């Protein structure tokens, strides 16, 4: 059912979703590894889509950790609520992270995990969202996102990598997760 909903939403707006298959569990494990989730006080997930990463995040964070998600697509937002009733999610644009932090009564988050299709975004949108993420993180905060191998060859993928280098003091790349459709890797970044 998740996959059918994802395909339907992709057909409506491919640039908003950017995927036609849910992420694999291997990609979810890779994106949540080595970014400090086990000790985080506050965590934000942007673009959870079918919430494959969410399951892993919620298992890893301490029970007192403040967690919230941000999903712009109304159908994916509803799917999230069905799957995780009672877990905080905003049906909003990630550029408004500051407003969400204010609503959560916190200054920043220790970790941001993103499922956004960065290589499909314009430079202007990439910059606006990246600034919002950077502003939400303290020095030493972690950011993790993924990229499809073919996306790195697109102009948006190349621009995005340069943007990461500009906003973060450390940017590392995981091994390729070949069993994900399509194959992907994770960027792990530290502010």
How does this model look, in words?
This protein is an alpha/beta fold. It is built from 8 helices and 7 strands; from the N terminus they run αααβαβαβαβαβαββ. A 7-stranded mixed beta sheet has the order 3-2-1-4-5-7-6, sandwiched between helices. The longest helix has 14 residues. It is globular and about 40 Å long. The termini are far apart. About 7% of the residues have low confidence.
Which key phrases capture this entry?
191 residues, alpha/beta, 7-stranded mixed beta sheet, 8 helices, 7 strands, globular
Q: Layout of SSEs?
A:
Layout: H1 2-12, H2 14-17, H3 25-32, E1 42-46, H4 52-60, E2 66-70, H5 74-83, E3 89-90, H6 97-104, E4 111-114, H7 123-136, E5 142-148, H8 155-167, E6 170-173, E7 184-190
Parallel strand pairs: 1-2, 1-4, 2-3, 4-5
Antiparallel strand pairs: 5-7, 6-7
